[in-house]
From TrEMBL:
Keyword Zinc tagged: no
Gene transcribed to yield this protein: GSTz1
One GO term describing the cellular component: mitochondrion
Source lineage: Eukaryota, Metazoa, Ecdysozoa, Arthropoda, Hexapoda
InterPro entries: Glutathione-S-Trfase_C-like, Glutathione-S-Trfase_C_sf, Glutathione_S-Trfase, Glutathione_S-Trfase_N, GST_Zeta, GST_Zeta_C, GST_Zeta_N, Thioredoxin-like_sf
Cellular localization per UniProt: Cytoplasm
GO biological process assignments: glutathione metabolic process; L-phenylalanine catabolic process; L-tyrosine catabolic process
Name of the protein described by the UniProt record: Glutathione S-transferase zeta
């Protein structure tokens, strides 16, 4: 890979982990190219020998930037924050920074992996919705409680943070699995606040180059 040039994001249109990174890149106004990786075509392009060299975990996202290849969405988000501190996505206050990371971790470790594609395939078609609903509800009860203490206009205070980058894609997943979101009014309010933000709209699955035409808005 050439050191010079735009970053390249290996992404799948509906991947919430890829979506987090797309939002952050957009918020920080970092130009980038997308290299789509289909998680379903031919058994999943992420399992190819070529992609395994990029990410041994055979998952998206991966980001090629500054001459390096980075994997795992939270690690990528941290790198972007550390190397491009302009337009910050972490608050200056250390306690608020910890609160942002709390919310990110609950979503990225406690919810999303349990309803990830590889897990749902193992659970089976008949039980996948029930399984996903259980774990999303469990996680969202925790997130709603955390937000009751931290939220202002957004997840932590009145500025957009990495927590918002993680929350909005997970709300999309919840709707996809028909989770009743009425018990989570703060989550719903923040989702409504950000649904038309340009950086979030540009990162939305329906606006990705690999989004199927019948899904794209």
């Amino acid at each position: 890979m050439s050191v010079i040039g735009k970053p390249v994001l290996y992404s799948y249109w509906r991947s919430s982990c890829s979506w987090r990174v797309r939002i952050a890149l957009n918020l920080k106004e970092i130009p980038y190219d997308i290299k789509p990786v289909s998680l379903i075509k031919a058994g999943g392009e992420q399992h190819s020998n070529e992609f395994r060299e990029i990410n041994p975990m055979e998952q998206v996202p991966a980001l090629q930037i500054d001459g390096a290849t980075l994997v795992e969405s939270l690690s990528i988000l941290s790198y972007l924050e550390e190397t491009r501190p302009q337009r910050p996505l972490l608050p200056p206050d250390v306690v608020k920074r910890a609160k942002v990371r709390e919310i990110c971790e609950v979503i990225a470790s406690g919810i999303q992996p349990l309803q990830n594609l590889v897990v749902l395939i193992h659970v089976g078609e008949e039980k996948k919705n029930e399984w996903a609903q259980h774990w999303i509800n469990r996680g969202f009860r925790a997130v709603e409680k955390l937000l009751s203490a931290s939220a202002g206009k957004y997840c932590v205070g009145d500025e957009i943070t990495l927590a918002d980058c993680c929350l909005i894609p997970q709300v999309f997943n919840a709707r996809r699995f028909h989770v009743d979101l009425r018990p989570f009014p703060i989550i719903l309010r923040i989702d409504r606040e950000l649904e038309n933000h340009p950086a979030f709209r540009a990162a939305h699955p329906s606006n990705q180059p690999d989004c199927p035409p019948e899904v794209a808005k």
